[in-house]
Automatic annotation (TrEMBL):
Name of the protein: Cystinosin
Transmembrane annotation, as ranges: 7-27, 47-70
Predominant place of localization: membrane
Region span, Disordered: 215-234
Membrane topology: Multi-pass membrane protein
SMART domains xrefs: CTNS
């Protein structure tokens, strides 16, 4: 038997076995969520990225498999190969992955499944933690807070403080203080907000208070460059 005669059934066998293995991997998690009636412990951002990734993968593999134009362009770029190495099982896997990852993602929606949803709040905590970091770095790199509204920070800081105060007041009227720890998202949001707002306030009123107005450098797409009191930074 020629090598090509062995190659075709071998690649098909291996391809469909990997498709079955990878496809089967999508079932334990939603089944576990269903059994527990909760998505606690599962990161919603993982599933968000998963859905996006598999949608893109399905588009890519489908284009390489079905589009004559794209297959021709592929051949022109890879002259040693007659056609893309995309198989029907790749399409089947990608389509199944989109369906199952989307299904699992919907388990974070309590109105559909009736689960206890905690992870959405934890994702908000993560987003809040991450969103402030680039601005802290930009202010540090520019040695200036010019263009960054301190008014929004003062209001943000006030909101964070009052949010914690309300949480403490509400918890004080209960038999114990479990109302504070029982609302970790609100507690975390308030503390994270206060922490970063204090950094911004320190940058604006202490560290960079003598910094002059910035100027726009058109050569780098409008990115502002700081202009100190004694002249432009090198």
């Amino acid at each position: 038997m020629h090598s090509t005669e062995l190659w075709v059934p071998t690649t098909l066998l291996v391809g469909w076995i990997y498709t079955l293995c990878w496809s089967a991997s999508f079932y334990p998690q939603p089944l576990l969520n269903w059994q527990r009636k909760s998505t606690r412990g599962l990161a919603i951002d993982y599933l968000t990225i998963n859905v996006l990734g598999f949608v893109c993968y399905l588009i890519s593999t489908s284009a390489l498999f079905f589009s004559a134009l794209i297959r021709h362009q592929y051949t022109e770029r890879h002259a040693a190969f007659s056609k893309p190495t995309v198989r029907s099982n790749d399409i089947a896997f990608a389509a199944h992955a989109v369906i199952m990852s989307t299904l699992t993602y919907t388990q974070f929606w309590p109105r559909i499944w009736g689960f206890r949803v905690y992870s959405c709040g934890h994702v908000k905590l993560l987003v809040t933690l991450v969103k402030y970091m680039p601005q802290v770095w930009v202010n540090y790199k520019r040695q200036s807070t010019d263009g960054w509204s301190i008014e929004q920070i003062l209001l943000d800081f006030s909101g964070g403080v009052l949010s914690i105060v309300q949480l403490l007041i509400d918890a004080s009227f209960q038999p114990d203080w479990s109302g504070v720890t029982g609302n970790p998202v609100k507690l975390g949001l308030g503390n994270i907000t206060i922490f970063f707002d204090l950094i911004f306030i320190t940058q604006h009123y202490l560290l960079y208070r003598h910094t002059g107005q910035g100027k726009v450098d058109e050569s780098i797409g409008g990115t502002e460059q700081p202009l100190l009191a004694n002249g432009p930074r090198p």
